[in-house]
Amino acid sequence: xxxxxxxxxxxxxxxxxxxxxxxxxxxxxxxxxxxxxxxxxxxxxxxxxxxxxxxxxxxxxxxxxxxxxxxxxxxxxxxxxxxxxxxxxxxxxxxxxxxxxxxxxxxxxxxxxxxxxxxxxxxxxxxxxxxxxxxxxxxxxxxxxxxxxxxxxxxxxxxxxxxxxxxxxxxxxxxxxxxxxxxxxxxxxxxxxxxxxxxxxxxxxxxxxxxxxxxxxxxxxxxxxxxxxxxxxxxxxxxxxxxxxxxxxxxxxxxxxxxxxxxxxxxxxxxxxxxxxxxxxxxxxxxxxxxxxxxxxxxxxxxxxxxxxxxxxxxxxxxxxxxxxxxxxxxxxxxxxxxxxxxxxx
Length: 346
Fold this sequence. Notes:
13 helices; two-stranded antiparallel ribbon; 12 strands; eight-stranded mixed beta sheet; alpha/beta; Inosine-uridine Nucleoside N-ribohydrolase, Chain A
């Protein structure tokens, strides 16, 4: 790890915080930001003890997300890690609601799994289906048992909609205070939405789940919303730095970001964002964040034009809710160097 991070400022600070016990909740597509986040953590064993990965519907349905996650683990030869699916759908939101929302209130720029067939699970391009066995429909039970077994020690890294976590908190409310902290990518404070004019995708896909989590008593909630994510774009020049290094992981990176979203190999002026990778990077080098704010936050869960929007919390309806630390600004060079080093490691 020290060799990997050569040239990155303040290396000793990375190790001062100690090894963190983490459960990742993702909605991984073929690679994208979820896959990059997972690679970053798995290549940082001195800093992160990853207990397992749970998969939630979001970018794709959970079974497909598990297949993509398992393929990444196969490429990394990371055999002992468990992958768990849980919720099959969002708590309330449906594809029909999304279609009707677009008809009534205007363009929905991205619908994620709502545009996919939930019965189809396909392998990564050029690969067979992973031989790993997913722990199907066990994500909520895994979350509860691990939080209880490691009371006060676990960081949940939430990279997708919060459906599984919300179900766990409803099933066993007492675990709220046994979670050390929640670090999540989702929501938007002042930035416009990226799926509707007002809502960020992860919150929009399951607003009811995000509301449950933001109203919870989890002691520390750290938010990487669109306000900070929009300051960490990836252009083709950055893409090329990683795609030029030929490893199984960078080949998958090249295939996904090059030919799918944002399509750098087809559109030289395309722009992507680090998104989930920022939340993962925070577990490795939190000092790349240069400014944050603290707010009590809620999510609009009444279906309508502003469904899934992040709003101030009326504390009279959730007096025990804890505040959210909202990350607002960053040192891009510092976090990019960390991202690049870990993705291109041979």
